[in-house]
Design brief:
The chain is α+β, with helices and mostly antiparallel strands. It contains 5 helices and 12 strands. The protein has helices spanning 2-31, 75-85, 209-214, 269-315, 321-327, and strands spanning 39-53, 58-73, 89-99, 105-116, 129-130, 133-134, 153-157, 162-174, 177-191, 218-229, 236-248, 258-267. Strand 5 (129-130) and strand 6 form a beta hairpin.
Length: 341
């Protein structure tokens, strides 16, 4: 009976020992994915910012500039890309909507971002774009990979349509989470004007990039970008940018640059709380596949193996010699009883 039990325990030990690495290296890459129908909204604010008045081309101080960033998963487009490339992808239709203190639109820039559902690496398609212009992204955008590492990553900057390293700069605590802090500085460079610009005045001709370019004005930009990233899910739980834009006139005019926008853009606290709550929930699913179950099953396999060996050893223990003597009726006793006289 002991031998049968030890064999069953040995079989279970082998099963769990095989299952542990399979969960980590086979199931995890196939199950830990960004859902194709993801929908997120985040609101960022720059208080006491500087904003251009396009009607007079002068900079003015305003109480607040708001940036509403929307990410919407396009399931139909993702299916089409998968049919074309064979890759499991996510297609995000993103929109950055900038509004002044009166709530009126300052600019809005749409994007289409196509990326691998598990690794977050960009997948290049004809529909990949920023503000209607085709782009070929290098590196990540919006989200870091699952199990983010303490290293630099290439990060895509939508304003300049270029990629540059974003640097790991330390580990911190944020709202009860251990997070990795990343930082990127985009140096001054010329960038395109948004294709949708604000209305100057009711009934006035629409302001377009073409009408601005006709004056010889150029838009220049620099920013310091900061992210606090949950390393398990790769989701930023907080973001901030120290952002500056200028409108620069031709040198022949002798005019000084005008600040188009300048401010410290921070995520609104209520959206931080919402994102942190979501990340704390989602990270448990990733940890289940990468840590809890693999290590738990590995420990269980070791315990079952030890118990199996213990039962096997007890089943093979030598018989008690005293018991053997008592069981042998033909053996003469060591001290025979005296024969009565």
């Amino acid at each position: 009976m002991r031998r049968k039990s030890s064999l069953v325990l040995l079989a279970l030990a082998v099963f769990f020992a095989t299952l542990a690495p399979m969960l980590r290296w086979y199931a995890y890459p196939r199950l830990a994915k960004v859902p194709p129908s993801e929908y997120q909204v985040a609101v960022l604010e720059a208080k006491n910012a500087t904003l251009v008045d396009y009607s007079s081309l002068t900079a003015k101080k305003v109480s607040k500039v708001s940036i509403v960033q929307t990410l919407k998963g396009n399931v139909t487009a993702a299916r089409q890309v998968k049919a074309e490339t064979g890759k499991d992808v996510v297609v995000w239709d993103a929109l950055s909507y900038v509004a002044g203190p009166d709530g009126k639109m300052v600019s809005e820039i749409p994007e289409r971002y196509v990326f691998d559902a598990h690794t977050q690496e960009p997948v290049h398609t004809a529909s990949e774009s920023v503000d209607g212009d085709p782009v070929t992204r290098q590196g990540i955008e919006f989200k870091f990979p699952f199990l983010t590492q303490k290293r630099d990553y290439y990060y895509f900057d939508a304003q300049s349509r270029t990629s540059a390293p974003i640097h790991y700069a330390g580990t911190q605590r944020f709202h009860g989470l251990k997070v990795y802090y990343f930082e990127q500085t985009v140096p001054w460079q010329r960038v395109p004007l948004p294709k949708k610009l604000p209305e100057i005045a009711p009934g006035a001709p629409a302001l377009t990039p073409e009408t601005v370019k006709a004056t010889g004005i150029q838009r220049w930009y620099t920013t310091k970008r900061m992210f606090w990233v949950d390393p398990t899910t790769g989701a930023p739980v907080n973001g901030e940018e120290i952002h500056t834009e200028e409108l620069r006139f031709p040198a022949s005019t002798g005019k000084a640059p005008v600040t188009a926008f300048a401010g410290d853009v921070k995520m609104r606290p209520d959206y931080i709380d919402s994102i942190v709550h979501l990340v704390k929930t989602q990270r448990q699913l990733v940890l289940l596949l990468t840590s809890y179950l693999p290590w738990g099953f590995g420990a269980l396999a070791a315990a079952l193996l030890a118990l199996s060996l213990l039962l096997e050893a007890r089943g093979r223990r030598p018989a008690d010699p005293v018991g053997d003597r008592e069981a042998d009726p033909d053996r003469e006793p060591d001290h025979p009883d005296p024969v009565p006289v």
